[in-house]
Amino acid sequence: MPIDRIPDWRKRIERVDACLDRAILDRPVVWCTVWPREQQVPWPAPRPWKTVRDRWMDAEWMADRAYAAAMNADYLGDALPVTHPNLGPEVFSAFFGAELEFSEHSSWSVPCLPRWEDAGKLEFSTANPYWKKMEELTGALLARGRGVFYTGITDLHPGGDAIAAFRDPEVLAVDMIEAPEKIKAFLVRVNETYCRVFDHYCARLEAAAQPISSWHRYVTARRQYVPSNDFSCMISRPMFDDVFLPGIREECRHTGSSVYHLDGPDAIRHLDSLLAIPELDAIQWVCGAGKGPVTRWLDLLRRVQDAGKGVQVLDVHPGELDAVMQALRPEGVWLDLAGVATRDEGEALVRRVARWGKR
């Protein structure tokens, strides 16, 4: 589906496809958005919701907000207007019956599996109210976004993060010692459901003649997603390899292309295990709060490249760009530029990256 405001939308998607193959079409992928002071479209006014939850559930308002965001930003380099239906990072667990609580900017699940004996009672159902709401949100965004923005897959966290949502992360940390076989047995059912859910959302996007994307902003012509396991920061590498790594590898096989979300320094202990997954294409590195700048982690990014994987480098500020380009090979690199104030500045940075790609 073309984006009317961006005549070279097809080439931007082709660059991302090449990036996932650890190659470059003509230069590395550069994502840069700038917010001009002058708005093109008014932001939707708040409605008289009774609760914060009601605002999250207002599909029409969410679609209007996505439309305003798409129209009010300048999309430079390979940036594209893209959004995803969002009820928070634990909505996949809510599809099994967990309840969500909402704040202004996020949501979290209420642990609902106090005893492993009750695991069989947690079942995915298309009659689930959160599933129905996600279907409504997806439909509203697809309708409002035609020709204006791309709609992606919601933020799905199967595997260890789903089990942590059911049990509570601290309780699950104890389970890793006392009940690893129960975790493994439940993971089989959870991960099988994830594959069906992923296929369903891909089919919806494809039926709307859309590329595949999500919160990580890779917009591609192929099926792909962003596997993760934030709970892994709480456990050792042997535990992770034994209980969760097989499921992550199966996710990568199933989705086609994949960019693993490596969430901060406590997740680095699992990096070598992840890099050994043949089906994994790239690593998205997140420094974590107070752990930047990105130039502090150049050795880590080189380690990823040396293993034959691509890297998504987030929050690269203009003053860091030369150091990043000096440290890395351009093939398979996705650069997310931050702190860019004007269109002219952003376009100049994109030209610098283009020269790097031709060296």
Verbal overview:
The chain has 359 residues and is an alpha/beta fold. Helix content is 43%, strand content 13%. It contains 14 helices and 11 strands. The strands form 3 sheets. A 7-stranded mixed sheet has the order 2-1-11-10-9-8-7, with helices on both faces. The protein has a two-stranded parallel sheet with strand order 3-6. β9, α12 and β10 (310-316) form a beta-alpha-beta unit. α8 runs parallel beside α10.
Give the tags.
359 residues; alpha/beta; 2 domains; seven-stranded mixed sheet; two-stranded parallel sheet; 14 helices
Q: Quick recap of the structure?
A:
This protein has 359 residues and is α/β, with parallel strands linked by helices. The chain has helices at residues 9-20, 52-56, 59-72, 91-94, 129-145, 159-167, 169-178, 180-207, 237-243, 245-255, 271-275, 298-306, 321-327, 343-357; strands spanning 29-34, 74-77, 82-83, 99-102, 107-110, 150-151, 224-225, 257-263, 282-286, 310-316, 333-337.
Query: Unreliable runs, pLDDT <50, ≥5 residues?
Result: none
Form type: globular
Number of strands: 11
What is the straight-line distance between the termini?
33 Å
Tell me the strand order in the biggest sheet. 2-1-11-10-9-8-7
Question: H/E element string?
Answer: HEHHEEHEEHEHHHEHHEHEHEHEH
Give the DSSP E fraction (strand runs of 2 or more residues): 5-15%
Indicate the structural class: alpha/beta
Main beta-sheet strand count, sense and barrel state: 7 strands, mixed
Tally the structural domains. Answer: 2
Number of helices: 14
Cα gyration radius (Å): 20 Å
Helix content: 40-55%
Mean pLDDT: 96
